Structure formats: structure tokens, C-alpha cells
């Protein structure tokens, strides 16, 4: 009992001193702020033993120290969790900054707040299974054990998605048709549509395609009534570069697939002999339908990213100049594409400490510089700034994710 109280007091001072800049002036306000949160924090059990050491000082006397001074907001979780209309949250940013940890912790928090939640990994290098410390592989919905309410996860296999596109496209007038047309002396027709670069498109699909298809596949099954119970969908997306390409991809694909279909029609009407290439009329029609469906789904993905009512892209970063610069570029691109962004998570911030070693002091200064950069960055300064501390253990498993979620998503 005594140990639990010590743990709670320690964690209370940990998380609050982290989130507030304490100066002699506001320390009393901080103490009452602290008191107002204590019931929620008391219910936490820390999966990080090393964070659960007894407090350095009693809460009401802990030394007030100016540690980090960013303009900090709470995430506005109440707003994120309210309502039963389906909402999509896409978490993205530079590689390794903590996208998966933030996405998984958000999913756990939604589920623990009564939402049927689905967390989707479209990152070709999946780490959801590692993050939840459960086997979620296989490209199917798998229930995550641990949260209070149903939480499902899916890791989409991008290679498989890419194959599907390749097959559908090939059946509808890809390289095979071009070769055939050349053989028939009808290459001119294909040349007229030369800018299509069909062979290239099919053999080396543009980057971002697999992720776009992965998202469209998820949307496809979410459209069916048997999955209508999911009210929160959290996407753990691929690193920035992929995301940016994905954003411009739907327009590109929309045009390309449209052209492929047009080519197919032209060729089919040019000669009935072409039928031998496409096979039976029925097969041809099926393949055409498939491609058309794919095109429609791409358009849906594009629209989903831009739907301010149901979707939000949350940028995750760390306090380094490189990561902040990349986040700024990501925000600018998302803005250009009209993708709604309201929140920026700055992950892995050094927790406050009364006595820094030399390394930590330098590191802290460095982080402060990056936080300053965010505050002065025209793309990032308007976003809600959510701080997430660097913890001294890996965030793995539902209890750890719950712990993280309760710090980040407030
Ligand atoms: N706040 C934190 N404190 C300590 N460790 C953290 C924190 N956030 C993330 N980590 C750790 O950093 C590593 C990378 O995190 P994560 O997989 O969430 O990043 P990611 O951005 O999804 O990476 P990738 O781009 O490779 O998919 C993991 O080992 C995770 O446990």
C-alpha cells in the first residue's frame, strides 16, 4: 500500500513537472493543478519500474526548476474521443521517432474509452506486433489482448497489395498487350498513348502505391456492414517520404488507371483479334471491373485524407533539428494537399531532473533549441504541441502503451 502511494506520488510529480514549467510564481498553481489530476493518476500502475522509484521530495516541496519551456498544450483527447461517428487518425513522421508507439497508445486509449477500435499498419516495415508484444502478423484482423474494449489490429502486407495491382493492370492492357499490338503491326495505336509508360508503371510501381492500396483495402472492408462497429481507426503510416508520395499518388494513379482503361477500350474496339489476348469476355470484364474498383478506391483514399470532419493527420517528431525540419516540410506538403493537421507530438523529451549530468545537460540544451525551432516555425507553430517524455525502458505491451497513452493523450 505504502509502495503504491509512493509510486503514485512519484509518477504524479514526474508527469506533471514534465508537463509544466515550474517557476516560483506558478508553483502553487502547479500544485493545485497536480491535485486536480491525482485521482486519474492514482489509478495508473507504471509498467516502468525505474520510473516508480520513490519521490525525490514530497510533492508540495519539490524543487521548482525551469527545465523546458515550450508552449505546451494538452492533446484535447476529450474532443478526439467524443462521438460515435467513425474517425480516422493517421500518425506519421520521420522513421524511428515513435509513430508506432504513439499510434498504438492512442488505439489502446480509444478502446479503453469504449470505442471499437482498429489500428492499422501500412508501414512496409511493420512494428505493431513488436509494440503490442503480440503476434499480429498475417494481414488479417487480430484482436489485441488487454484493453477493456475490443481493439483489433491489422498489418497489411504491402507486397501482396502491389501484386494485386500488377495483376489487375496487366490483365487490362499492360506490357503483354503492347507486345501483342506491336506484333500485330498496331504499335502505332499504343504509341499514340505513348506517354503512358505502361511497362514502367507495371514493372516498377510508383513508391507509395503499396501503402495507398493497403489503405484502400482497409477502407474496402470497413465499408461492409459487418465492420460498421469500428468507430475509431488509427493508422500507423510509413515514414515521411512514403507518405508524401502517397499523397500525390492517388491523382497520378487515377489518371494512369483511367488511361489504362481507355487504352483497353480503344484496343478492343480496334480489332476483335485482341480478344485472344484478354481471353474470355467474362474474364476481361472481371479484370476491368477490378481495375475500375481499384481506381475508385484510390479516389476514396485521396478524399479520406482530405476529409476534415472525419480525418486527422497527427505528425510525430522528436526534438532534434533534423526531425523538426522534416516535420516542417511534411506539414507544408500536407497543407498543400489540404490534409487536416492539428496536432504535433514531440516525443522522447528528456524528463526534468534537478541534477543533470554533463551529457544530459547538453542534450537538454539541444532539445530546447529544437523546441524553440518548433515555436518559431511557420508550419508548426500553429499546431497543438503535445510533449511525450523519453522513458528509460522500451514501450512494449498493452500496460506500457496505456501508461504512455495516459501521458500523451490528455
Ligand atoms: N518516449 C519514448 N521513450 C522511450 N522509448 C521510446 C519512446 N517512444 C518510442 N520509443 C522506442 O523507440 C523505438 C522506435 O519506436 P517506434 O517503433 O514507435 O517508432 P516508429 O517511428 O514507428 O519507427 P519506424 O519508422 O521504424 O516504424 C522503439 O523501441 C520504442 O519503444
From TrEMBL:
All copies of domain ArsA/GET3 Anion-transporting ATPase-like, residue ranges: 87-407
Pfam families, per the entry: ArsA_ATPase
Coiled-coil stretches noted in the UniProt entry, renumbered to this chain: 277-304
Cited InterPro entries: ArsA/GET3_ATPase-like, ATPase_ArsA/GET3, P-loop_NTPase
Domain of life: Eukaryota
UniProt key word Nucleotide-binding: yes
GO cellular component, one term: GET complex
Example of a GO MF term: ATP binding
Catalytic activity: ATP + H2O = ADP + phosphate + H(+)
Keyword annotations: ATP-binding, Coiled coil, Hydrolase, Nucleotide-binding, Transit peptide
Gene Ontology biological process: tail-anchored membrane protein insertion into ER membrane
Family, similarity comment: Belongs to the arsA ATPase family.
Protein name: ArsA/GET3 Anion-transporting ATPase-like domain-containing protein
Organism field: Gossypium stocksii
Amino acid at each position: 500500500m505504502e509502495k503504491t502511494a509512493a509510486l503514485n506520488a512519484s509518477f504524479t510529480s514526474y508527469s506533471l513537472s514534465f508537463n509544466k514549467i515550474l517557476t516560483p510564481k506558478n508553483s502553487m498553481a502547479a500544485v493545485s493543478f497536480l491535485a486536480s489530476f491525482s485521482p486519474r493518476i492514482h489509478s495508473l500502475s507504471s509498467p516502468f519500474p525505474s520510473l516508480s522509484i520513490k519521490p525525490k521530495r514530497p510533492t508540495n516541496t519539490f524543487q521548482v526548476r525551469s527545465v523546458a519551456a515550450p508552449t505546451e498544450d494538452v492533446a484535447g483527447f476529450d474532443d478526439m474521443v467524443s462521438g460515435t461517428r467513425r474517425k480516422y487518425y493517421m500518425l506519421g513522421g520521420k522513421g524511428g521517432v515513435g509513430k508506432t508507439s504513439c499510434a498504438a497508445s492512442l488505439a489502446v486509449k480509444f478502446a479503453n474509452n469504449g470505442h471499437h477500435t482498429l489500428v492499422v499498419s501500412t508501414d512496409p516495415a511493420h512494428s505493431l506486433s513488436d509494440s503490442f508484444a503480440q503476434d499480429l502478423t498475417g494481414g488479417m484482423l487480430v484482436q489485441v489482448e488487454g484493453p477493456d474494449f475490443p481493439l483489433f489490429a491489422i498489418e497489411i502486407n504491402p507486397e501482396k497489395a502491389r501484386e494485386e495491382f500488377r495483376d489487375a493492370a496487366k490483365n487490362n492492357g499492360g506490357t503483354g498487350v503492347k507486345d501483342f499490338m506491336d506484333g500485330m503491326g498496331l504499335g502505332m495505336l499504343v504509341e499514340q498513348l505513348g506517354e503512358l509508360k505502361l511497362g514502367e508503371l507495371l514493372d516498377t510501381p510508383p513508391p507509395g502505391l503499396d501503402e495507398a492500396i493497403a489503405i484502400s483495402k482497409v477502407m474496402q472492408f470497413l465499408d461492409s456492414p459487418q465492420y460498421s462497429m469500428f468507430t475509431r481507426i488509427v493508422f500507423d503510416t510509413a515514414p515521411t517520404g512514403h507518405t508524401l508520395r502517397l499523397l500525390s499518388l492517388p491523382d497520378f494513379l487515377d489518371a494512369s488507371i483511367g488511361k489504362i482503361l481507355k487504352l483497353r477500350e480503344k484496343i478492343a474496339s480496334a480489332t476483335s483479334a485482341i480478344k485472344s489476348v484478354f481471353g474470355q469476355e467474362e474474364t476481361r470484364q472481371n479484370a476491368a471491373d477490378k481495375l475500375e474498383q481499384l481506381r475508385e478506391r484510390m479516389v476514396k483514399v485521396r478524399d479520406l485524407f482530405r476529409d476534415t470532419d472525419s480525418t486527422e493527420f497527427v505528425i510525430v517528431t522528436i526534438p532534434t533539428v533534423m526531425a523538426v525540419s522534416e516535420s516542417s516540410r511534411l506539414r507544408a506538403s500536407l497543407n498543400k494537399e489540404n490534409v487536416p493537421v492539428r496536432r504535433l507530438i514531440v516525443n522522447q523529451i528528456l524528463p526534468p531532473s534537478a541534477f543533470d549530468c554533463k551529457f544530459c545537460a547538453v542534450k537538454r540544451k539541444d532539445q530546447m533549441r529544437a523546441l524553440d525551432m518548433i515555436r518559431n516555425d511557420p508550419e508548426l507553430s500553429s499546431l497543438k504541441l503535445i510533449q511525450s517524455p523519453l522513458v528509460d525502458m522500451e514501450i512494449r505491451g498493452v500496460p506500457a502503451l496505456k501508461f504512455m497513452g495516459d501521458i500523451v493523450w490528455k
